[in-house]
Every structure is written in structure tokens, then in C-alpha cells.
């Protein structure tokens, strides 16, 4: 009997990371939109300790990532280059966040990434420590066909 209990406990320990794994999804996987159109990219997750959701863009033909903005709880914060009427963030970061792009130009084409970070309070200080991010991608193409 003791062997069966220890085997079951060992299996449970092996499965614990899988059972406790975070699930995150970003939709749609690809977008083709005309200039003057609009699109919404959505990111959702099932992690309970997430307070931050970040959106990044990697322009076409580039390797550099640019932070578009982030959600902290229910507050949207856009970076300076994106504080125009064309980009907006909505959501609560605790479960879902959306990046809306209106009147896109061809310069907006590229890959858009959603990232979430779990936050944990340290008992030695009052700042938040953020764990490594989970990343997902959407191909966003602005195509001006006649």
C-alpha cells in the first residue's frame, strides 16, 4: 500500500506543472486590412496573478520590437508614438485585453505580440517582481489594393 501512495504522489508531482500551466491566446492569427479600415487584436489568459498585459509591434522588414502600450489592471497606457486616435487599448489585463487599430497605414504592417506578466509581492520590499512573459503573435498586413 505504501508503494502505491508514493507512486501516485510522484505522478502528481510530475503533472503539477502541466496542471498549473498558464493558457494564453491571441486572435486572430493574421489580419489583412485596407487603409481607412480598422481591426481589433485580442489577447486572453487564464492566469490569476496577472496585472500587466503588454502589446508590442515588430515592423515588417525589421527585427526590433516596439512597445505599443500596456494595460495595468483596467488602465490603458500607450507609448508616445502610439498616442494618436488610431491606436487604443481596452480590457482589464486580469483576463483579456484588446488592441484596436483604426485607419491603418502601410507603416503599421508587421507582427503584433501580446505578453502577460505575473506579479508577485516580495515580503522584503513593496515593489512588484514580474515573472518572464508569455508571448503570442498576430501578422498584421495593411494592403492598399485598387
From TrEMBL:
Signal sequence, start to end: 1-21
InterPro entries noted in UniProt: Ig-like_dom, Ig-like_dom_sf, Ig-like_fold, Ig_sub, Ig_V-set, TCR_beta_variable
Domain Ig-like: from-to ranges: 17-125
Keywords: Immunity, Signal
One cellular component (GO) term of this entry: plasma membrane
SMART domains: IG, IGv
SUPFAM superfamilies from the UniProt entry: Immunoglobulin
This protein's name: Ig-like domain-containing protein
Amino acid at each position: 500500500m505504501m508503494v502505491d501512495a508514493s507512486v501516485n504522489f510522484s505522478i502528481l508531482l510530475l503533472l503539477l506543472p502541466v496542471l498549473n500551466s498558464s493558457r494564453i491566446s491571441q486572435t486572430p492569427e493574421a489580419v489583412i486590412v485596407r487603409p481607412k479600415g480598422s481591426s481589433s487584436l485580442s489577447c486572453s489568459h487564464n492566469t490569476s496573478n496577472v496585472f500587466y498585459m503588454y502589446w508590442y509591434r515588430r515592423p515588417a522588414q525589421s527585427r526590433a520590437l516596439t512597445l505599443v502600450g500596456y494595460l495595468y489592471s483596467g488602465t490603458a497606457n500607450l507609448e508616445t508614438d502610439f498616442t494618436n486616435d488610431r491606436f487604443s487599448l481596452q480590457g482589464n489585463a486580469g483576463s483579456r485585453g484588446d488592441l484596436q487599430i483604426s485607419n491603418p497605414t502601410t507603416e503599421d504592417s508587421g507582427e503584433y505580440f501580446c505578453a502577460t506578466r505575473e506579479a508577485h509581492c516580495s515580503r522584503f520590499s513593496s515593489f512588484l517582481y514580474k515573472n518572464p512573459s508569455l508571448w503570442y503573435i498576430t501578422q498584421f498586413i495593411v494592403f492598399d489594393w485598387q
